[in-house]
Amino acid sequence: MERYFNITGACNPKEHYMVNLDSRLAEIKKMVDAGKYFVINRGRQYGKTTTLNALENYLSQDYIVVSMDFQFLDASDFENTETFVSAFAQELNELVDEKHQISEELAKQLHKIADGADGYTRMANLFKWLCSWCKSASKPIVLIIDEVDSASNNQVFLDFLAQLRGYYLNRNKKPTFQSVILAGVHDIRNLRQKIRSDTEHRHNSPWNIASSFDIDMSFSPDDIMGMLNDYENDHHMGMDIVSISQLIYDYTSGYPVLVGEFCKNMDESSNWNEQGIIEANKQILIRKTPLFESLIGKLEDNTALRKLLYNILFKGQKIPYNPDDATIDDAFMYGFVKNENGLIAVANRVFEVRIYNWFISLETTDSQIFAEGVNDKSQFINGSGLNMELILEKFILHFNDIYGTQPDKFKEDDGRKLFLLYLRPIINGIGNYYIEAQTRDQRRTDVIVDYLGKQYIIELKIWHGDEYNTQGEKQLSEYLDYYHIDKGYLLSFNFNKNKQSGMHTLELNGRTIVEAVV
Questions:
Q1: Which candidate, 43, 97, 90, 45, places its Cα nearest to that of 70?
Q2: Using CA atoms, how far apart are residues 184 and 48, in angstroms rounded to an integer?
Q3: Which backbone phi and psi does 327 adopt, to 5 degrees?
């Protein structure tokens, strides 16, 4: 069977092109060897199940591995202690029957627990059985539970964790699991807060024995390169593997399912070059996928999270990383953001544009400037791409017509948002934009537009006087050098009452800069 790029469900190296996980598995095994209990919590489709499946095989030589998935338990199984203990024992019974030899007496006891026999469905009975098994087993036992999110809002699961904790703390006296690994999007503290919101239970977890899991599960450029080497050996596309791997990483920051999406798109189009990357990005941004549904759903439901992302993207606020801030903690847990040199940044370029588009879409219905962009769209298309000078000229005209009499209404971040509102319908369906994260701050933002294979760099900035404007011109010129582009655009938002709107062109260090002042 020919291998392919999989973006739906766990990956199997016999069926799918995959990143080599051996180094990660070796690091996880060190934690297991040390007897640590821990949680692997990462965002949706971050490769958790794939990693756990590979880990089960990786550990099997030294350990008995019991790998369970709480997706196979339904709500009624968590209704009370008896139903949970019985359901857990039923799952365990199937695993033991399939893979592991246990004594006849232990098998009888497990069947009674699974069948819900009188006197056998207390949590203590289940753990006494587990203790007996751990004592008699031929090898240490590792328990893995995937999709622990399925147990959220449930006190019974916390009671289960409390038992695991109790046996862990007394493992010198009572045999128990060598290691317990829980996996899901939510961490255990988040599950606890949903059940008990009072301060005492918020800060006293039944899972405070857990070690930190700091192993990086994102894909590096080298990881991607290894996977593409396998693909190239099979298909002989003649791609530049080093540059393609780096470009995929630049867009995704190694978020596993997004890496897979880029590769799948380019495989289907047989277009393994920079233009193929741009086209794949465009397709990904317009698709309604479970990952994006989850991402947008969290923004719709969580006001504080929405405000955090808005302040980063539109206001350019520099927000320090603080793991004790509940909103920042949520943003990390869901995979929205990353810690970049001590500051909060959106996790990757794809998420960033998708979130930008979502914020913009909230205002398109009632936005006059968006409507003007729709009406003007056909004027800006020429044989070689976009007439960016005309776009800026028209934007200034519309801005002054619509908002010129009410400048006090706007904050500095509104100008940037209005330009993106105007730009979006012009490039929609053919081109895309992204924001250069390294240049985004409260004074400056660089928008890079990809349209029909050509890039346009527009620096958006707030007017802070002639000296700062000259500095902006120099920065843009250097940025154009980096991208090997001859012409760039500088759009300044001047909120002074005596401002002078207009456009002019200058030459700087061999580059052409078109300046527009609103």
A1: 90
A2: 8
A3: -70, -45
Q: Where are the domains of the chain?
A: 22-203, 221-286, 290-349, 367-517
CATH 3.40.50 fits 22-203, yes or no: yes
Give the tens place of pLDDT for each residue, 394-453: 999 998 888 776 655 555 567 778 898 999 999 987 888 888 765 555 456 788 898 888
- How much is the pTM? 0.87
- The neighbouring-strand residues paired with 84 are none
Q: Residue 199: its pLDDT value, please? A: 43
* CA 493/CA 400 separation, integer angstroms: 11
Contact 320/327 with Cβ under 8 angstroms? no
Place of tokens 């298909």: 235
Q: What angle do CA 354, 359, 363 make, to 5 degrees?
A: 135
CB 487 within 8 A of CB 514: yes
**In the 8-state DSSP scheme, what is residue 220?**
P
Residue that the structure tokens 């002019």 belong to: 504
- Residue 221 CA to residue 6 CA, distance in Å, equals 19
Residue 143 backbone dihedrals phi, psi, to 5 degrees: -105, 125
Q: Under a CB-based contact definition with an 8 Å cutoff, are residues 134 and 177 in contact?
A: yes
Q: How far apart are CA 272 and CA 236, in angstroms?
A: 11
- Tell me phi and psi for residue 433, to 5 degrees: -130, 160
- CA-CA distance, 348 to 247, in Å (whole number)? 12
7-10: long-range contacts at Cβ-Cβ below 8 A with a sequence spacing of 24 or more?
Answer: 7/45, 7/257, 7/260, 7/261, 7/264, 9/49, 10/49, 10/50, 10/53
Which contiguous run of DSSP H or E holds residue 8?
none
